[in-house]
Amino acid sequence: MKADSTFNAALAAKKLLREARSGALATLIPNSGDPYCSLVNVATEPDGAPLMLLSTLAIHTKNLLAENRVSLMLDERKEGDPLEGARVMLMGTAARTARGETRAAYLRRQTEAEQFVSFADFMFFKMDVLRVHLVAGFGRIVDLSARDILTDTSDAQALIDAEADAIAHMNADHAEACRLYATKLLGAPDGDWRCVGIDPEGLELQQGRSALRLFFPQRVTAPGPLRAVLKQLAEQARAG
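Given the sequence above, the corresponding structure tokens read:
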């Protein structure tokens, strides 16, 4: 058997990163240094940096407040043998963040968190990814850098500033386009697919806890080009 020379490891890792809604978080227990692994819900910022909402009562939170080195594993959660599916291991550090945009980004993807996000013992953490290890099948085991899987937003402040309004507009006035993106362009089952994230490289669609990444045909950095590419994709979906 030969490895797939057409495989794009960075693209595969980016897809896993953007579509994951939960993952395995590994932290280090103070003093002993023993590894501790737990299940956490995740979301992403516009650049793809993982976000977590953690309780200070949880062991993993106490661990990372004492030692900020962490590892986060995300997998594609498809049917069948989980070892045959793709997964990505992110290694780096995690630190508390209190940005308002972080809260909004997380709650769009983790709506059930609305009921406890304001509790005093909960806080947001953002992961600073340093190294990446992707396992996606035979011949598809690749070490990557953070630069390979994160999205450059340095020239896209106009788009980031407009993201919340653009998402609200899409869901209120173009819900049918979101459904077509999911079903016609990404092969998903029909349903109430909604937009939950937009960044220079693509958008995220979600139904329940199922999420899909739709990559743009070209990079966009402002609302005008975004409208043009969304219209282009909608026409493509209707034609297909």
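DSSP finds seven helices and eleven strands in the chain. Try to locate this feature in the token string yourself.
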